[in-house]
Structures are given as structure tokens and as C-alpha cells.
Protein 1
Amino acid sequence: MAGGYQRAPTRGGVRAGDYSGAVSDAPLHVLLISLHTSPLEQPGSGDAGGMNVYVHQLAGALVDAGHTVDMATLDRDPGAPRTAGMRASRIREGLRLLTVSLPGAAGAAKEDLPGLTGAFAEVLRAEASRPDVVHAHYWLSGAVGRELADDWRVPLVLTLHTTALGKNLRTRADEGLEPAARAEAEAELIARAEATVVNTRTEALQMVELYDADPARLTVIMPGVDLSAFSPPEPGGNRRAGPRPGSPGRPLRVLFAGRLQALKGPHVLVDALARIRADAPGVPVELEIVGVGTRRFTAGLQQQVRELGLEDAVGFGPALPAPQLAERMRRADVVAVPSSSETFGLVALEAQACGTPVLATDVDGLRTAVLDGVTGRLVADRDPASWAHALLGLGRDPEALARMGAAAARRAREHSWERTALATAEVYARVRDRVRVRHGSRWCVNTLER
């Protein structure tokens, strides 16, 4: 194959994305599309979360590897220009943010964005430089990427991060199901893309089972972690100093970091703390909730804390930049991820990089992110009683916390964004020389020249 690419091993037809080191050295121009949320937004606020971290960190690591990258996003700020246009901002050498403004986009809700994908693509088509590959993140970005890839005759790589059918498998009816139109759009994108990158083998199997994806066009690449920001505490500092959990007067310190919404499960932790206080009053537990949600959900969560009489045990804080979040993680004894569904759960890997064990729901990508009994523990369901039991077990076993924390830090060191970027660049190299381009109603295969 062109560029000396060596075929990666496959598992049951699904390609494994481990970097082989045989990818072409030719630098690429990559367009990463993140329409609904800017990669530079603070994770844990608004629609920003792990995907923002993923896109921004992937972009930086690709630039470090010698490629040039543009990240494209929609300006939804209430004060955004009301006219169609694009602003290019230089982040660093080789990396730019392309911010698209559109009539009707300022202050637009996420639910309104499907109607803006065509206009978004039109602006990029007119004002952005033609890349070697388009990599779309999330289904809304995929709708844009499909148009641009066809027009520019370049390959489309897709990373959905979360899917409608995957979420609906786990979401309770009162949490709101994803619409059928989104699932249909995702199925079309998966069928169209030259390659779809997924975080775990579990996600790949879901793609095959739920969307009838072609396993040969799926590649599993685990996300990385910013090891310069997320690292274990220095010997004698932070969590390692002072009494251990379980000592008289020393509470178990639990951290939740993420968007405040039902599917992330902060309310599950609050109920679990109430059960611990009722059933085991001699085991103190403190919960810090870091993140931002809608006014309605946040007010309901705070009311829940007051009604349960937990004001002295539960604290709230805003979403934090990586260095401050890492400091909170190092201070915690355990980071809790009680999500109903996660394609991976990047916060779990960040916590492990800080040497902090993770307690997570036994579901989907969290089964890969957390090694049960080694770097943390998985909880069978989201019943507050199950979480209370798991937290009590950790609070009474400081040796296990220390052992799992050390293992967590060792494991996280294996997952740098550099490795993720190099594996992703292999995908780009594989698809760029031969790409399907739609002409009218038929597909043909074209060989692209740089």
C-alpha cells in the first residue's frame, strides 16, 4: 500500500489501531470538525466534555507529529455575528481554529443545529483550505464532513463519540431518548465514511450490532491523556500526606467531575451518601461535585442535597481547567463516574493518571477505561444502594485504595495523546490514497494525488 503502510491486525474483522510506526512521513493537512462545541471550551460546562478534550489534544499531537490541522466549530455565543462568515485564529504553529458564524446560530440550542449543517458546510467550502482528510466528530459534524468530503474529493473519517442507539440502550425513559432521526443520520454516516474510529472494542461491536457497520472500516483507538497535566502527587504531598481514609475523623473524599445531567449520575452519588450516613454513620464520606449543568438540573441536585441534610458533606464547584482539575483528582481518594452510558469516559483515565482509583458503572466503554479490581472498581448498576456499598468498601480498605492508585498511574502512562495521534494518522494514510467519490447516483474509486 502507498506510503509503506502495514495493515494493522484485526480482531473479528475490526481493525486494531495500535501504532505500527510504518505510516508515511508525508505531512497531511487535516480538518477536524466539531460543529456543536468548540474544542477550546471548558470541559464540564455547557455541551463541552470529553469530546472537546479529545479533539483539542488530538489536534495538538498531530501537529507535534508534523501535520497541519484546522479545527472548525460553530459560533453559538449570543453575541456572535449574525452574518455568514469564518474567522481563522492561530492557536500555535500548524494549528488553527476556524470559527463559523451563521444567521440563526447566535444563542442557538443544540436541538436547532441540524438545520444549520448545510450552511456551515457552505461557509467552509468557500473559505477554508481543501484538506487531505476530513475527520468529523459527532453526528452533526459528520453531516458537514460528508458534504465537504464529497465536494473536495477527500476521505471522510468519522468519530461519533456517542450514538443515539447506544445511549438509548442505557437511558431511562424519564432521562429522554435520542430521536430516531439522529440514529438514521448516524447509520448513513457510518455507511458513507471511509473509516470510523471508535474508542473501544465494545463500541465497535455496538456499531456492528446496532448500525450494521462494516467491521473492516472500524478502527479501535483508545484516547490518550495529557500526562503533562494529569500526573500522580509528589511523594509526601496531597493525598499521601496525613491520615489515611478510615482513620478517626478522616472522611473518604469522593470527586465527581463532569457535566451535571442525569445520564452522568451525580444524583446517584448524593443518594448513596445519604444511605451511607443512615446505615454506617461511623464512616464519614465527602463528595465534591465539579461541573456545570442546566439551571433546572443543578437546582434540583442542590435541593436534593438540602432535603437529605447533606450540606456538610457535599460541595459544588465550577468546571475546572486541566491543571486545577488534576489537583482536585490528586486530593481525592476516589473519582466516581456513575454514568448510564459512556463510549469511553475520559475523566476516568485522567483520574488514573493522577494516581486516583476510579469507581465507575459497569457499562460500555467504562469497562475498558477502568480495570476492575486493578485500577478501580466497577459497580453493577446505578442503584444508590450499590454505590453506597462500593464506597463503604473503599472507605474501609485504604490498602486497596493505595494499591489501585499506584496501578492506575502505571496504566495511564501507557496512553499518551502522542500514541493516539500516531495511530489516527495511520488511519488517515490508509484512506487518503484511495477514496470513494460520489458522482451522481454511483460510486467510483479515485486515486488522489497530493
Protein 2
Amino acid sequence: MMNEKQVDLKQAALIGVNWIPCSGSNTLKVFNPASGELLGTVPKLSEEQVRYAITTAERAFNSWRKTSINERCAVLNNWYQKIKENEERLASIITLEQGKPFAEALGEVRYAASYVKWYAQPALQDNGSAMPNGSEGESLKTITEPVGVCAAITPWNFPAAMLTRKVAPALAVGCSMIIKPAPETPFTALALSELALLAGVPPGLINVVTGDAQLIGDIVCTSKQVKKLSFTGSTAVGRHLMRACASTVKRLSLELGGNAPFIVCSDADIDKAVEGAMQSKFRNAGQTCVCANAFYVHDSLYDRFASAFEKRIKALSLGLGSDPHTDIGPLINERALEKVEALVRDAREKGGKIVYGGERWAESERWYLPTLITEATTDMRCVQEEVFGPVAPLVRYSDEDSLIASLRAQDTGLAAYFYSESLKRIHDLAAELEVGMVGVNTGVISDPAMPFGGVKSSGLGREGGRQGITEYLETKYIKLCY
């Protein structure tokens, strides 16, 4: 259960073993999105301090890379245990600074911990191979080595899970990490990093830098000491970071914007599809990169699906994240609310029918009502763009081939969902959709044992699964003659 009185916010940056406190007015303010209350501040680090953090990470890396796999995994297991022991406190911090209901925040903490546990397995790591191709007197082999100092820029919507998904595999293979958390949610990153130190992670392997995003981003992108950058966020920022990293030809992992279609095929089980739609659309008030964006419902099922979906949407409860009955929390800030309002206004002007919602909550303007839009069309912005809010546009379709062709023409390709009872259709659609992840008859796809990532403008590389390990490794070929 959430207990705000037991939450101690670490209002400092972390470099090595040193906590860098706030100094004067050179700080970033962090607010509770539900109330607007000031939660605390974190320092705006100077260029010199950020560069010192990188040098500190490099020194720690040079030592850590020499430790055994078993030793590194043991430390990760200790971190996992610390997270589990403090899961309610961590969840309370997430609810305070991000706004999601406590039950969802607790689920995120457990999901974050699962990545640490997953990467604490020595058997996951590829340590190279010997090749039998050489001539007599020759030995051909490959070995893998950690890339070095890495940087992670994490988002505000999942401040715990997106951190551990990047940091755990990096530490497992021998890398060190510079973490730049979102300015809206730095306290979760700081709490997790404090637990890492208590778990025995050597100082300098995890450094948390707070402050001006442009300054920090430019430094890590252009630093020759930083060998890899992992970023989760918008496509626009991802493109900027990609260009900035070109000067040092840096390794990149980019998990960028999505526009996940949710297809209800003509042979779908409506009850299951509605359940999956609720899971996918309204988690974290629709503020997830893989949540269903637009719903494409076959004409033969459209009215029945819309009616059943409407009933479930109307039953959602809005309120504070600390209230155990709350389903929908606030949006992260005023800018997010204004974007959702603009998308709904555009849909209304283009003939969309607002069946439910379509405005801010009467009891607090920091919330947006869960919204159902029927008779949505593909020229509406809420269909073309990532909504990142609790808005569900329903598009009617009759020709599946035309629908798939239009979806393949989209620039994004992170995730897609569809419901069908036909094995042939399941096989064909899963292959035809140009996305990195597909949910078939489910609205929940994330799993630490599986690779997470997109194609096209939705990103590069993968996090999670065995693939998440290789993102932090370089392969070296050695030919030995004797």
C-alpha cells in the first residue's frame, strides 16, 4: 500500500560514490502531476561535472570489465533483491512523480526487477567461439568484449523499467553507465541507483546526471569516452541524437515513437478483443509507447465491439494514484493535455463521433477523460499520430489487404496487435505487419526474456532477451599461428 510519509526523495545527482547536492537556484524542480505540488529539486550539473562523471565511469569500467561473469551476476542478483525489498517505496515514488496508479507503479517496479534478475544469468552471455576452418598450425577464434562506457537517456512514462532494461545488461557484460533520467521523473532513477550501491555495485559503474537535457545530450553524444548510447523517447529527439552521435560513430540503441494498430478481424472473439483493448489502451492513461493507438475493426463486428468497448471505458475510475480504486491517473503535464485536446478536436471536425469523454475531467483539469471516438477515419491526426493519452479512435474496415497495405506504408513500426481465431490469418498477418513486436490475441507483449524494439522510424536495436546482451558487446576475431 502506498505510504507517502515513508518516501524519502534523494535530491542530488550521483557521480561515483558522491551525491552532488543542489546548489543555490541552479536546480530543476520536480512536480507531482496530480496536484502540481513541488516534490523537490535536483541539481543542474555543469559541463565540467558531466565530463567528470564520464571519466569516473571510465575508471570504474576499466576495473569492472576484469571481474568474472559470476561475480558480476552475483552483484546483479543482490540489486534485484534490494529492489524487491523496497518495491512499495519505489512504487510510491513513481506514483508521486509520474502519476500512475499505485498498483500500476508496483507492477512497473516488479517488471523493472525482472530485467535485473534476467540479466543476472551467466549462461545468457556469448563468450565467443572457436572455428575449425583454419589450416594446420592455425587457430581461429572469436571473443566478445564490453563496449565500454555507455549512456542511457530514459523517459518519464516508465522511469524504473526503462532504466533497468538498459543498465542491467550493460553491467552484466562489464560496462559502466551514465544515466540521464527524464526531468519529470528523476527520483525513481536516483532511488534505484542508491539501491544498486547498497547491493554492492562498485561506485562509478552507475552515475546519474541531472540538469539541462541539451547540454548533457551533446556531451555524451560527442564524447569519445562514451562508446554507446541507449535512448527511449520521441522519434524527433532520436533523430537529433543519431546525428549528434555520428561524429564519434557511436553504438546506438533507439526505442522511438510508435503508432500501434489494434486490428479486430472478422473472426475475432469480441469479448477477448475488448479485454485486450482495455489492457493495451488505458494502462498509464495511454502514455505508453506500445499502447494501441487506433483500432481497426472489421465492419461485421464494428457495432458490437464499439458497444462492448464503450461499456468498459465508462466503468474506468479516475483519481489519485494513491487511491486503490483508481484506474486512470493524470497526464504528465499541461503540454500533454493540450496535445490530446488538439487531436480530439481534429477528429470531431473531421466527422468523428465522440461517444464518450472528449474533454478534461470536471473534478480536475489535470486528467483527461477516457475517450471513445467512432467513425474515425485515416485522415484524422489521432489515427496518423501517436496519441499518448486515453483516446481510442475506432476505424471501420472491410478489405483486409487494403488495411495491411496502408499500415505497411506508415513510417512507424514498433508494435501491432490483432485478434483472430484463424491459424492461417494469424500466421499471415504476423508476417505481413512491418513492426518489431506483434501481440496476437493479447494486449500485453512485454517480457524480459524477449527482445523489445521497433523497425523503420520506431528505432534501432533491441532491449531485453538475449539480444539485449549483444547490444553491449563487441566481437573480436583472433587468428593464432603456431
